[in-house]
Give the backbone structure.
Amino acid sequence: MVAMISEVRASTLDDIRARDHLVCGVTEGTPGFAEVAANGAWKGLDIDFCEALAVAVFGRRDAVRYRVVSPANRFQVLAGREVDVLPRANAMTLSRDTEHGVRFVGTLFHDGQGILVRRGHTVASVLELSGASVCVMAGGSAQEGFERYFQMRKMRYQLVTAEQWPDTVKTYADGACTLLTGDMTLLASERSRLPDPGEHVILPELVAKEPLGPIVRQGDDRWFSVVRWTLEALIAAEELGITSQNIDSLRNSPNTDIRRFQGEEADLGRPLGLARDWSYRVVKQVGNYGELFDRNVGARSPLALERSVNNLWTRGGLMSAAPLR
């Protein structure tokens, strides 16, 4: 009897259906990922992924509520069943995946430490910048990562440090250094606020990698699978050329993989406890991974990030979906 009770309590999908909505833990005020728009609605890549989960479970993207979490309490809030999923929190490490009662599902966004430089320097690679001066926060992981990256390549550099991030950015904006280094998404956000954003370029190399993606509680394989395959479906749709705009026109496609994705060739929802056409509904209402990226952090957003490592593997990136079959 005790084992049965534990199993029932561990069924996140049952809890979600009982309350008729998903609870998503997000970090507030993260441009491009999770922020409240002028109309009071949440928007961002994290928000779109939460809505994709809501569509997978309920068939509608509005069946989700948001709980603001912080870096200090996000794992405790998830383990305490106050939220059902963290769409994109810390980077996955062995200790985080084993010591906090949570499991990392996959990669929604490849972040990492990048380098910002003025377009006028006409460089296309970090490897062209030996001897450059770099603005960096003193004593943090960014300084350590930058020094390690340059030293391993036997490249010279000059550090221009500041104790606080706003001061670091101001030093760069004032022209006191050649480069600014920090998380790629943070650099994109700061670039969008500079007087002439188009005159600043984020170089393609990452000084350090940071794969970010959904996190769920340990011990609930069913919900883990739902979250994993929703993420895979978003990427697989882009690989197959399926978008929110053309998905209906592909109903009778001669491509077996597309028909299977639509729920016509096989019932892939049944083993997940979802509707037969759950993946069709997700893309129809939310879009594929490329659509999510472009409107939130890519070319159609103020951040204007290049796809780079977040492009499909067939286009030189790292995003790849396991087959939906």
About this structure: The radius of gyration is 21 Å.
